[in-house]
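Worked Example 4.2. Consider the chain below.
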Amino acid sequence: GTNQDMAAFAQCAKKLGLKLVLDVVTNHTGDVIQYKDREAFVPSDLVNSKNPAWLNDLSNYHNVGDMNSCWGEGSCMQLGDFYGLDDIATEKPVVYNGWADVYGKWIKDYGLSGFRVDTARHVDDNFFKNWSPQIDAAAKSVGINDFTIFGEVWDVNPINLMNYIRRNKIQTVLDFPFQRSAAEFASGYSDATTIENLFSYDDLYTTATTNASNMVTFLGNHDMGRAGKIIESKRINPANELLPRVLLGHSLMYLTRGIPSVYYGDEVGMTGSGNGGDQRARQDMFETKVSAWKSEARIGSEPIGDGNSFTTSASHPLAIYLGELAKLRATYPGLANGQMQIRSATGNTLVLSKYDPVEKIEYLVAFNNSKQPSKVTVSTSSTAKWKSLLGGSTFSNKGASVSLTVPAFDAVVLQSSAVM
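Applying the procedure from the previous section yields the following structure tokens:
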């Protein structure tokens, strides 16, 4: 598309009350540079193929081969070409200042609200310290005071992941540890202690300006595959359990800490053809001529055939449930951003509290990944009365103790009805 196309797109989004978060790449370009006996060169017909001009200067690249077998001095993960894509020397001022100019202009031209930074683990350790302040300044110059930058750091170990926030100063990151744990719990592969263990690392992300609540949580994406396919792959379950388990996975994402991110098409039960990974999970929502996508199994609905995925979105059980969860977060901000505390993690049942310090209201949120209802008694912060906001739970309280039944494959939310 053209700059004019993007401007029109941004204007349309603004009219609809939507904010734009753009996926940007700072680590690499397309594969133009080639090697002969470890000597980097650019084919004559591609010498000036990149824009801006500084991207055509070989000295602005590391030129040490693929990241899996590089010959550079240092980390091949940071110096090597990402699957053959030309690796830029992001430690150089001409590079990080150049990227600040490019992406800063896009913010000014299109009123963007945030960036998802691709392959953020592959840039040098100081890149975000050098680049992010310039991006923030560009946003503030046009009145965007809460610009968000989150990096794609593909690492499922919180001890590794937290370094990119605390040491490398990425504002926040995609929460790959959550993705793994949530998919395993939703599938029934693991029990509630898996989620409890995940959240026990949350303090590692805490600094004066960061915490785990600002991490971007997800269940599936364009690289890994779709939420339903991933949950299905974790454990063999009866086919009729897949929809409720996928609903459970999304409830875990919306009702714990973090900023939930849903991959388009998951709300209408797309699964991805074949093994469901990477490019097989990237079909669009319009009518298709690809036979595999016409017959692709859907969760909660029939294959799309000759139709399109927009017509079913209003009535699809996944879309309806996601709408309910989003409305809950909007209506009760404590559910989205409140202080979180694990109350119980036993067997198939996880119970946590969310506390709203402004309204002084506590919420109890419980999840059950079993095919049987579960009963649990937990301690709470007060002797308040409770009411149900989500799910079909029966409950009672005695003093500061609440006993509740959580239906199979369900999430329930209770709200304290008195100020504490």
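The two ends are 55 Å apart (CA to CA). The mean pLDDT is 96. Compare this with Example 4.1 before moving on.
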